[in-house]
Every structure is written in C-alpha cells, then in structure tokens.
Design goal:
By secondary structure, the chain is an alpha+beta fold. The chain is built from three helices and twelve strands.
Length: about 270
Amino acid sequence: MLNVIQFIIRFGTFFLFLGLEIVCIYLIVNYNKAQQDIFLNSANLLSGSVNEKFTKVRSFMNQYSVVDSISQENAALYQERFNYPFLFDTLDNFKDTSLVYSVIPARVINNSVSTQHNYFTINKGTLDGVQKGLGIITKNGVAGIVKSTSKHFALVISILNDDLKTSASLTRNGYFGSLVWDGKDPKYFDLQDLPRHAETKVGDTIQTSGYSLIFPKGILLGTVEEIKQKEGTNFYSLTCRIWEDMSKLDIVYVLKNNAKPELEQLEKDVYTDK
C-alpha cells in the first residue's frame, strides 16, 4: 500500500497532465467542427493504413497457402509419373504393386551457390519421412541429395558441389555418363565418359539415366552446348547447360525410393559373395 501511495505521489503530476490533455482533446473535437473533421480524417487515414497492412498480410498468407496447395498437387503428379512404369510387367499386363517412389514437397529455407561445395536446407525432416540419401528435384531437373536430417529440417548437397556426381544420359539414344559441376559457372556441367561411338549433337537434351537408386529415369536436366573429344581415349565429354537456376530455389520435391533397401541388400549380397 505504501508503494502505491509513493508511486501516485511521484507520478501524480504526470497523470494529472495526461488527464487534462485527454479532456482538452475531447472538448476540441466535440465542440469544434473543423478540428472534428481533421480528427476523423486522421483516424480514417490511420485505420485505412492499418487495414491495408492487414489486407496485404492476409493476401500474402493466402498466396503462401495456394503455393503449398499447388506443391502438394505437383507432388502427387510426380508420384504418379514416376510410379507408372512399375505398374506393368508388359504393356498389356497390369501389375498390382505398392508405390516404388514417394514424393514429399518441401521449401528451401537456406541456400548457397558461391563456393565449390554448396548446400541448401529444406523445411522437412525425419518426421516428414525425409532420410539421408534421398534425391531432391525441382520442376526443371535435379537439385541435390540429402546429406543429413533433423526432426524438422534436412541439409542437402547441392548439384553445385564438385563432390556430387549424377548419372545422366542422352535422351535421343540412352548413352550415359556422369554429370559433374566443375565449380565455375553454375549453369554449366560436364557429362563425362560418354563412349566415342555415341551419336550426339549440340542442342540434344540430357536426362537422368535411371541407373541409380536415387533418381528415376527421364527427369530432363538440360541441353548439350559443346562436344569435347578426349584425345587418346575412347570417350568424350559434353558441356551441358542445365535448366534449373540454383540461385532461385524455392519449392522442391524429395524423392523416396521405397525399393532402395531391398535393392541395396541384393547388390550387397552379390559383392559379398565375391
């Protein structure tokens, strides 16, 4: 009680001044037409500005929700596309099988493109089914491979990392090699170790070969820009321009090969027997 009295004594003058100011404003606004108009206009401007901000925030959140909805729909389409070849033993015989590939939409929340060993982070983790070693794709191609995970996030090795090799092939004839970034221009990659008898030309498209447990066959990656012969060998390499702009990553899709554990065990048994 003593503290309350001391507080009132200490700040009483201030509160009295504040009260008188409020009374004065009330009298001016209510009994002076000009001041009343000014006050109402100011209040309307303030409330309008606040409402405009809220409308923009609400619009942004709605757009964010729409993007998430579209990414979910795209994930379902990718899942259908990648699983379609596994539904048939032949062109005529339907095969009842569980999904080989599962697709999980995610958003990139951190990204680097300026070093020779780049990574990016996505907002999905183990609680969403993301695991180490899963592939990451975009609407324009391959983006990377999951390196590590936490419950809610995953760190991804970017294709802009000279430690990462992706099995890719020429769309026109299926000849394949390793797609590698040389650490320089983020738009250009080398498709290495193609046999010299593999026919190709500038402008040909390249795609994932399907010869891995990470990416299915047929994901288009880019086009051939230059053909480079390797003297003294039976191989040559291609300089390819990829279609994905890695500096603008936003929505990505995590590919989970549900058959991978079985295939890995099968191949492990083969090498163990040797």
